[in-house]
């Protein structure tokens, strides 16, 4: 009984960590394939070190490129591995190009596919992630949905078979690591930060970075807000900040602390101790909610609607004045907290379900 896991991007290393641990416990053999989508030390290796994930069995080294190039190269190279390994099932996570390539390579070889974080929708097909999710869901045999909303989305698209409401594996990851982070992280000291006296920001969505007007507006809001903003910069964003001449502007401002991407443990500590979080990341929106930190989302829609419904997250898009208003004024609307992301045992449920299904097959 053998599973091939295909991962390649930062959030996938975090999502796979608790699931791999549980797969081991139920005696499933896991072969890990890393597409190479993310490769910088801070986007890649640091997560394997901190989260105790075993080194990938295959590193495909695809690297960066256009969507077609990247997904196509991954498809070719994952296929080669699958032909060699002949697994019972391929496991993919989230909505990146690595997710789609892994699922597509498998289904073409008649290998079953399981999708963790199935059923998320932004209903915006211009987002590459939305296309990846929809296609992956429609070729998956097992769909592990983190929320009831995700289950409903799948049902609305006619996907009824193989859908399981498991809860969110990112919640599992956070619960497992938060005490470890509290004990080991020195990031507040290193950066000279005081608890609840700074805002944490991350920006990396293509629609915010590859668009000069949007990125200028976001950075303009950060600077004009006058608040201390700690900003771990994704390599995509650094590239565009440089090419739009915004790095100089940031350096001249006195309130933005631009840092390299940080490891997961430092990130949890930066999140937990921030006064507010500003982000366009899916994972960071959820972590803000799990840690009960108010979140300002630099998008017009979110897949994680529960965080908004509960009043902890506000969608402001990229309008400068709206962002500045939210930085100063946004407060969660009360004490609502509906715990809609499971009980922190999603990974356990997934491993047990897979073991059951795989036993049935063999
Ligand atoms: C990808 C995912 C996105 C996810 C994000 C997590 C897709 C379509 N997008 O976006 O859903 O939210 O990962 O972080 O799969 N780069 C480096 N070093 C690296 C990685 C990237 O310099 O280690 C730079 C390259 O210039 C590259 C750019 O960042 O072209 C974008 O990387 P890519 O993996 O294509 O997309 P992300 O923006 O990271
Ligand atoms: N993250 C991290 N270091 C950083 C920024 C993010 O460890 O400098 C973690 C974050 O805590 C979350 C995950 O990366 O667990 C989110 O990934 P990202 O924002 O890259 O992608 P998304 O979730 O939007 O797909």
TrEMBL record:
<dbReference type="InterPro" id="IPR003331">
    <property type="entry name" value="UDP_GlcNAc_Epimerase_2_dom"/>
</dbReference>
<dbReference type="InterPro" id="IPR029767">
    <property type="entry name" value="WecB-like"/>
</dbReference>
<protein>
    <submittedName>
        <fullName>UDP-n-acetylglucosamine 2-epimerase</fullName>
    </submittedName>
</protein>
<dbReference type="Pfam" id="PF02350">
    <property type="entry name" value="Epimerase_2"/>
</dbReference>
<feature type="domain" description="UDP-N-acetylglucosamine 2-epimerase">
    <location>
        <begin position="23"/>
        <end position="354"/>
    </location>
</feature>
């Amino acid at each position: 009984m053998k599973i091939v896991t295909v991962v390649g991007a930062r959030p996938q290393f975090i999502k796979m960590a608790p699931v791999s641990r549980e797969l081991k416990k139920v005696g499933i053999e896991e072969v890990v394939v890393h597409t190479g989508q993310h490769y910088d030390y801070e986007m890649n290796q640091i997560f394997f070190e901190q989260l105790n994930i075993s080194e990938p069995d295959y590193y495909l080294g695809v690297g960066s490129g256009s969507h077609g190039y990247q997904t196509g190269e991954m498809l070719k190279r994952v296929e080669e591995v699958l032909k060699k390994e002949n697994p019972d099932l391929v496991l993919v996570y989230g909505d990146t190009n690595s997710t789609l390539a892994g699922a597509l390579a498998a289904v073409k070889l008649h290998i079953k596919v399981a999708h963790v974080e199935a059923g998320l929708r932004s209903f915006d097909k211009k987002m590459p992630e939305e296309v990846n999710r929809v296609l992956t869901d429609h070729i998956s045999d097992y769909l592990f949905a983190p929320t009831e909303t995700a289950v409903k989305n799948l049902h609305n698209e006619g996907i009824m078979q193989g859908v399981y409401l498991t809860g969110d594996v990112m919640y599992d990851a956070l619960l497992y690591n938060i005490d470890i982070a509290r004990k080991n992280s020195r990031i507040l000291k290193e950066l000279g930060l005081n608890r609840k006296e700074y805002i944490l920001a991350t920006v990396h969505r293509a629609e915010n970075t590859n668009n000069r007007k949007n990125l200028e507006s976001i950075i303009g809001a950060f600077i004009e807000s006058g608040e201390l903003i700690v900003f771990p910069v994704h390599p995509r964003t650094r590239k565009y900040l440089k090419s739009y001449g915004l790095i100089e502007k940031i350096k001249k401002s006195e309130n933005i602390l631009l840092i390299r991407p940080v490891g997961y443990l430092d990130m949890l500590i930066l999140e937990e101790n921030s006064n507010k979080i500003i982000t366009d990341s899916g994972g960071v929106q959820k972590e803000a909610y799990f840690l009960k930190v108010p979140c300002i989302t630099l998008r017009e829609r979110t897949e994680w609607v529960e965080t908004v419904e509960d009043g902890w997250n506000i969608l402001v898009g990229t309008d400068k004045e709206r962002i500045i208003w939210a930085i100063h004024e946004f407060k969660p609307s009360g004490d609502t907290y509906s715990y809609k992301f499971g009980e922190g045992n999603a990974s356990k449920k997934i491993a047990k379900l897979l073991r059951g299904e795989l036993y049935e097959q063999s």
